[in-house]
Amino acid sequence: MQQGTLLPTARPIAEFSLIDQKGAPFTLDSLKNHWTFTFFGYTQCPDVCPTSLAMLAQVIRLLEKDPAVGTLPRGLFVSVDPKRDTPDVLAQFIPYFHPDFIAATGSDEELHKLTRQLGLLYGKSEGDNENDYLMDHSAAIILFDPDGNYRALFNVPHDSKLIANEFVMIKDYYETTQ
């Protein structure tokens, strides 16, 4: 694989509790029965977040053109800025990239619980006042398999064609080993 890293064995993750853009719970069970590309960031991000989400939407569009893919993966954006990124803010933000993308956030405790299991980092960079700040965060895309396990990692720079092709390989591998 050129773009991603397939974990030698799927990594189960512990239960977590987030809230999606509709105000509904998003938990480990929400990951099950779907392939899910997941990106962690925040809506006021000036650079990597919009670029990565647009690229992820392109991955989905490329896969939509291939009938052999079968069930399409989902896109999930997890905000690491729960103070500003409320469900209402997420509901306005995420459809800009793809109408089927899901956005979620949670308490700092729940976000830390989830990101630490995935080896991802994030933190607040203080600004001039309490509402003027940036969030530093990992830029990797995580792929969860239909069992809700951490299956692969895609690091920057992201290439939509490579990720789409490698997703098909990962999915085929998963299906032959079940």
From TrEMBL:
Known Gene3D superfamilies for this protein? Glutaredoxin
Give a Pfam family name: SCO1-SenC
The UniProt record lists the Thioredoxin domain at 7-178
Swiss-Prot/TrEMBL keywords: Copper
- Say if the entry is tagged with keyword Isomerase: no
InterPro entries tied to this protein:
SCO1/SenC (IPR003782), Thioredoxin-like_sf (IPR036249), Thioredoxin_domain (IPR013766)
Family the entry assigns: Belongs to the SCO1/2 family.
Q: What is this protein called?
A: Cytochrome oxidase biogenesis protein Sco1/SenC/PrrC, thiol-disulfide reductase involved in Cu(I) insertion into CoxII Cu(A) center
Species this protein is from: hydrothermal vent metagenome
